[in-house]
User: What shape does this take?
Amino acid sequence: MTEIPDLIDALVETATPVRRLRPPIVRAGLWLAFAATVLCLIAIAHGVRPDFSDRVRQPLFVLSMIGALATGILAAVASFQISLPDRSRLWTVLPLPPLALWVATIGYGCLTDWVSVDPDGVHMGEAVRCFATLLMTSVPLSIAILVMLRYAALLRPLEVSVTGGLAVAALTAFALSLFHDLDATVMILIWNLGAAALIAALGSLFGRSMLEWMASRFTTLPR
Amino acid sequence: MSAERRSPIPLTIVSASTPDDPQTAGDGADWSKLMARSQYGDREAYRTLLEGVTPYIRSLASRCFKQPTDVEDAVQDVLLTIHMVRHAYDPSRPFGPWLAAIANRRIIDRLRRDTRRKAREVALSAEHETFAELSANLHAETSDEVALAQAIERLPPDQRQTIRMLKLNEMSLKEAAAVSGRSIPALKVATYRAIKSLRRMLKQQSNSP
Assistant: This one.
């Protein structure tokens, strides 16, 4: 390796002006605005689920939706906060209360609907469309948050990718229950919790290497 | 976590209240201003800052690494990280905790990597070198050599002389013929017979333990 004075020379030589990051809360807001745009576009293209007006009258459904949405928003805020080195690690617990609410309502729905499981209730066409919505929501949101938080690869990759993954997962689940009429309990469990767990797990497994890859693509190093 | 637990050296996570913290030492406010100017591309300020923080980072790193080369590598790693994330510093917040957080993060990462590497790799000891070092296998070689030398000694005199000239001294047939005064075909026959009887003798030896 080079000597430290040589390294400092190289770093000083490449020290071009940089644009300071906006406060984390503003950046989280920007990402959430992007997420809202994506959801609006899908809503225009696809339309909300046919029984939406009936479902919003059910407190359980509303609670579940609020839980998912709040989890998404708070996890995004937490992720942007802890991506900065001098912010407290306690920000990671911020999305936990709405997460508990969301998971609890899914579980409750699952138990109450248990008897009415109909094997033919969900046919393949709906499931495939549902999967398309899942991809349309989670892929752009994941890419956006990876690009915005790429510098965290060197600082707290695990915490940032888990909270970021949770934010994407929660908003994706919100989109799924907004657009898709999936009433079979097993499907709700698979699509809501399963998709959330899958995205969060992928985030924790590959988040670190993805963040590093993003950092290497978008950050210039002195040569 | 595992590095913190397994590391024989206690990890010191420096917070803003540590006595040798740059904020309390009086440099912190200056560093904050220097960093703010560096963000606008002021190279002199950036050089002063990097040179100023280096001893501080080195003191943090030397608490966790014993080898001077490891300490220097850790310092370079921290300096590079500061360079890559310098846009993430907010001048309205103190510089000391920001720097200490980055330094601790990188040092812990390095310790973890070292622990993982040590768990996976085994340092070669003297016994393992037996397979690589030439001199290490001398025992087996010398016993073969001794057996061969003894077998040559037991050959008839003309065969013994031929083997010594052609094989041990690596003379050519012509040279051997000139030295011994025998014809080349005679030397060839003698060599053939000598090797045949050597082979027989060595085979007998290896069969009888």
Remarks:
- Residues 1-26 of chain B have pLDDT under 50 and may be disordered.
- Chain B has eleven helices and no strands.
